[in-house]
Amino acid sequence: MIKGFNEGFLWGGATAANQCEGGYLDGNKGLSTVDVIPSGKDRFPVMLGEKKMLECDDESFYPSHEAIDFYHNFKSDIALFAEMGFKCFRMSLAWARIFPNGDEKTPNEEGLKFYDDVFDECLKYGIEPLVTITHFDVPVHLVKTIGSWRSRKMVDYYEKLCRVIFNRYKNKVKYWLTFNEINMLLHLPFIGAGLVFEDGENKEEVKYMAAHHQLIASAKATQIAHEINPEFKIGCMLAAGNTYANTCAPEDVWSSIEKDRENYFFIDVQSRGEYPNYAKKMLERKGIKLNIEEGDEELLKNNTVDFISFSYYASRLTSADPNINKSTEGNVFATLKNPYLKASEWGWQIDPLGLRITLNSLYDRYQKPLFIVENGLGAVDTPDESGYVEDDYRIDYLRRHIEAMRDAVNVDGVELMGYTPWGCIDLVSASTGEMKKRYGFIYVDKDNEGEGTLKRSKKKSFYWYKKVIESNGSDIE
What we know:
CATH topology: TIM Barrel
Distance between the termini: 13 Å
CATH class: Alpha Beta
CATH architecture: Alpha-Beta Barrel
Number of domains: 1
Number of strands: 14
Largest sheet: 8 strands, parallel, barrel
Number of helices: 16
Strand content: 5-15%
Structural class: alpha/beta
Strand order of the largest sheet: 1-2-3-4-5-7-11-12
Mean pLDDT: 96
């Protein structure tokens, strides 16, 4: 018999408020950064912080405004998750639903009540909520008034949010993540940190200053959480995937180490409690001086995370030769084409063994429990007249990644808490704003232009994943 996973392994699925919730102004919610990101040609310039769009216009389509309307359908959606056997549901809070402008003295009760209802619905079925406090989400008012995470004041607003939610949900939520893919602010600064750049300013300095503020905020959240409920488990979250060297030339190997360090930097601070020497030297070389205040270093040192969570979709490939690397420009995570791997329809290279490599790299580096909170295949699904999708390609992708995960646990001894594949129900793509890039076990009738009935239907993978969970990962055929 093939060995599965430990008893209590948290099988489930993952979503984000900004990609599934909709109801973007319902219940007194304020405008969030994702609500002003349109689909189409302006999307990437806005996400990069290069084009300033802090209001909605009548000409553009904004996918987050309705998304898949989880806001009005959460009860039936969670019932479908329960039918699959979920032990865990990873979701996020919309900051602007709780503090519409971000700087109010008191929170919005309607927003708090909505999440009470969602958590109650999860707990009714024995599903543990895993809650991301901030998932590509900043109240637009804070971008306009203080420049979002470029300002130290954001730490205070974030701390207030944390105190409210930790106290309110202390008996309903045990697992928390401070920031989603915290390293994303280096790649898509508006998405990751609400940053909009001014002409002529040092973008690198602004990004790393915002990073410092988020790292301080994360440590503060960890401190507060443990004070309010010592049973809370607080994690950080990394967009992960090891970078391979293009050749065995030592220069290429060194390039791959440097690329990985760009992303490890954040988790090194959150997990080890201090800036690593390579990061200090990098900032020194770039002439970036962080505004580290008295008490910051002590706060970071004394409030490291309990576990490390990450997303894994693909590995990466780099070369030390700038001419070869030119072909990678324009991607969120620059990568060369790996000739040994097949790619998804969106060009993401499929590398199940890369997941095992990533799990081992992270566990060797930190010796803390790991949690895979995103993994999946974005693909075009073609439903039949009843909405059923024969998504064998998705099953194959997930099966091979679960196999790699199982090897990491049972052969290599990696400590793994759970697995929540991304977009367990179809939702809006964060990068492209599309609906046709689907990840879910549940099909949602909606297209890229926002047309459709929003009707939910089960794909073939729904029944397959149900069997995987029932067998605790021992039956993945």
